[in-house]
Amino acid sequence: MSAPDLSVVVVNYNTRDCLLDCLRSVFATLDGISVEVFVVDNASTDGSVAAVRREFPAVQLLVNDINHGFARANNRALRQARGRDVLLLNPDTLVRPGAIATLRAALGELPGAVAVGPKVIRPDGRLDLACRRSFPRPSVALARLSGLSRVFKRSRWAAQYNRTYEDPDQMGEIDAGTAAAMCFRSSALEAVQFFDEAFFMYGEDLDLCYRLKARGGRIYYVPAAVVVHFKGASSGQQPRAMLREFHRAMWLFYRKHYAAGWRRTLSPLVWSGIQLRYGLVLGLNALRGRQVVSP
After folding, report:
1. Spatial CA neighbour of 22 closest among 137, 109, 99
2. β-pairing verdict for 85-89 and 6-12
3. How far apart (Å, rounded) are the C-alpha atoms in residues 159 and 167?
4. Quick check: 202 and 23 in contact, CB under 8 A?
């Protein structure tokens, strides 16, 4: 059997209805592209597995007996994927018509491209800022965590992380997109050995893009392709645990990529800052009476 053009991987945890809608949108927008689709289920209890088997018998279901997290679950499918390209999607996304073909064309045409990300929007049309990011170097992280990036959205220094000073409809090279919706060259993923499974949830896509770029690959934001992201369908089920993982991922990324040489001396300060932010968000959540993972 010949290899498909594209492998689609969706990791699911108790998001049955969103997952089914996501898969429907994928199969409705293939535009003649040959595809294999994997759903990796992280021990859902909401009937997700049975529903996929019933409505999408061609989908390859990989069922975990416990929740292994996002990185490890994706890797289980990525190691089996045969497509030349790989599209990662969260189950709470909807692929707009033409998006898949546009991403694959960009991946094949843009200079040195190893990954491309679509314009990811929220249901109300707002841009999901995670879809075009700069790496969280210490100065970038400081501007974001201090709130300066929210105040000075047009500043190239203050708004480096989410690049809000740029036109959201302008294609360009970025450091990282979001694994909620992103297309990769399979050979590039294999070369960096996929996701780092030390990340349970959050940060794994930044780390992956960092390693891809360290090998000379280029990553692009392609707004002509649009994906809708409802966001939080899985993480919202366990917000306290996800808040903890969000801040743990910050520290993992810093320790892995920046805590070397003279920057090692900054490690206690960075650790303290991350813990302070964690405590502040916990306190704000208590005052608001609702749980927010990343305010």
Report:
1. 99
2. parallel
3. 13
4. no
Residue 295 banded pLDDT, cuts 50, 70, 90: very low
Residue reference for tokens 């069922």? 63
Topology of domain 6-236 in CATH is Spore Coat Polysaccharide Biosynthesis Protein SpsA; Chain A (3.90.550)
Are 219 and 117 in contact by the 8 Å Cβ rule? The answer is yes
pLDDT, tens digit (0-9, with 9 covering 90-100), for 14-52: 999 999 999 999 999 998 999 999 999 999 999 999 999
Residues 263-280 have pLDDT tens digits of 777 777 777 777 777 677
Cα gap 192→195, rounded to integer Å: 8
Res 290 pLDDT > 70: no
Give 59-98 pLDDT, tens digit per residue.
999 999 999 999 999 999 999 999 999 999 999 999 999 9
- Name 111's Cβ contacts closer than 8 Å, sequence gap at least 6: 218
Cα→Cα distances 48→45, 104, 131, Å: 7, 29, 27
What ranges do the domains of the chain cover? 6-236, 239-288
Place of tokens 């939080």: 232
pTM over 0.85: yes
Residues 67, 42 contacting (CB under 8 angstroms): yes
C-alpha dihedral, 245 to 250 to 253 to 259, nearest 10°: -130
Tokens at 146, concatenated: 């201090």
> What φ, ψ does residue 276 adopt, rounded to 5°?
-65, -45
Per-residue DSSP letter, 110: S
Evaluate whether 199 touches 254 at the Cβ level (below 8 Å): no
Beta bridge partners of 61: 39
Give the residue-averaged pLDDT of 117-124: 97
